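Retro notes, item 3 of 5
We never archived the inputs for the zinc ion complex last cycle. Fixing that now. Sequence and ligand:
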Amino acid sequence: MTNQEKLDAIMEKMAKDYRKLNATQQAFAIKEIARVRGDIADLLADFAADDGTIKRQRLSRLLRELTEIEDLVRDYGVTAIDAIIKETAGFTTTAVSAGLAATVGAKALTSAQMERVNRDIFEYVVKRFGDDGLVLSDRVWRLSGDMRDELSKVLRADILRGEAVSTMIANIRQVHDNETWKIRRLVVTEGNTAYRTATAMNASRSDVVTAVRVHRGAANRPEHRCTQLEREDRYGMGAGLYLPSDREIYNMHVNCTGYLTYGLNEDYL
Ligand SMILES: [Zn+2]
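Structure as it came back at the time:
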């Protein structure tokens, strides 16, 4: 087995491990954002009359209080996604450093070097503008705004119908379940972007890696940018091979699970 083949095998395994980690990150973000259900239950309890309903005279006041709930969703969401990006950067940097040490005997990064590269990865991911013209925190804000809109609709209808607070709480749970796919999409998109950015930024700092290879996501759709990039020979190095500084491969499209592996410098093959 050549060094390149050994490294390819290590990086394929790493990509598989990251897919598993991303699944736990999705569950974590969903759970963190769901904490707001407790805050909403407290709010409804404050507004409830003795008969367990909320009087319609209090409706507009309650809907205004949802601003606070929206802020909480945003706080829980931003805190969770920041933790996910940091975790992904740490996971990737540690794994590629170990992989390069095990195959070509590259010197493992010191903890200070790891900290620096992980900080750069985090900064890049939270500050990048997507095709939607938004940065990451804007996307979390949009999510919290959507959730507020849905909550308003449900609470307004329930209060006008004279439903009990217990029914409202069940209906709110439904709102959260309906919004879950948006949280998943956000964590897939941003987590995988952090994963690819971390892979590429570590390659930029390495003397033994000259290129990164694009592997399309599982969807394998011809119209997906990752599938096109896997086939393109942009630098005359071969199809799918890119300079680590080419930022298009960090985020190929929304919900992309494509990943990168390394092309070794020919002295180390
Ligand atoms: Zn893709």
